[in-house]
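Long-time lurker, first post. I've been practising inverse folding by hand and with some scripts of my own, and I keep getting stuck on stretches where the structure tokens seem ambiguous. Below is the full token string for one chain I'm working on. Before anyone asks, I'm not after the true native sequence, just a reasonable design that respects the backbone. If someone could post their per-position residues I'd love to compare against what I wrote down in my notebook.
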């Protein structure tokens, strides 16, 4: 059987719920509402990712890979588990208004991430090799990454520690942005991309 990178990504994300539950057990956080909210958000996001991968997969995650690269990718994704460790080990209890803000960011992020990925999947099926720049992609070239940013920002904020934010920044500058620039270079070969690039932002609405 050929290894594919999505095997490693899906397994790590699918196990996130159990990892957080284990941390709650280790640090006796059963009576901490913030820990339960974190479990509900990050834990279910992992399951949603696996479901998304089965229903409308991203082809870049279905490429063959080596065991070594797959394990490195799995380990890199585990950096996101630093946030629940910081939360549970320190017994963080966020104010209710702060919890509501994090939940709202997560909800908006899930919508942007999953809806834009679904639009991309359908557009590539119906118009292979053509530039699509409508819907959620009208004024933003990477609405799926914006969605992920809001999702992981909500997780990092719940940890209430600078290290969780640092992990997110590491992913943004180490993987997300290089991937966006690489995609722009590929799309530059398609008709209409120059005009699309001029009227759209790469990642953050109105800013960048």
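-- Answer (accepted) --
I ran through it position by position. Result:
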């Amino acid at each position: 059987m050929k290894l594919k990178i999505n095997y490693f990504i899906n397994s790590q994300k699918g196990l996130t719920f159990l990892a957080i539950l284990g941390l709650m057990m280790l640090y006796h956080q059963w009576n901490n509402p913030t820990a339960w909210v974190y479990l509900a958000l990050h834990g279910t996001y992992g399951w949603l990712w696996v479901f998304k991968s089965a229903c409308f997969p991203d082809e870049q995650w279905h490429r063959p890979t080596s065991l070594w690269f797959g394990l490195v990718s799995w380990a890199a994704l585990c950096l996101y588990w630093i946030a629940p460790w910081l939360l549970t080990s320190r017994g963080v209890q966020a104010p209710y208004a702060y919890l509501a803000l994090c939940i709202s960011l997560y909800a908006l992020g899930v919508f942007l991430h999953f809806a834009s990925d679904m639009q991309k999947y359908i557009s590539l099926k119906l118009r292979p090799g053509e530039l699509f720049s409508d819907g959620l992609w009208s004024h933003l070239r990477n609405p799926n990454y914006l969605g992920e940013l809001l999702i992981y920002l909500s997780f990092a904020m719940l940890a209430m520690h600078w290290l969780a934010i640092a992990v997110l920044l590491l992913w943004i500058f180490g993987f997300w942005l290089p991937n966006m620039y690489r995609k722009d270079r590929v799309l530059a070969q398609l008709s209409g991309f120059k005009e699309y690039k001029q009227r759209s932002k790469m990642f953050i609405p109105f800013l960048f």
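A couple of notes from the structure itself: The chain has a mean pLDDT of 95. Residues 5-199 form one domain. Happy to go over any region you disagree with.
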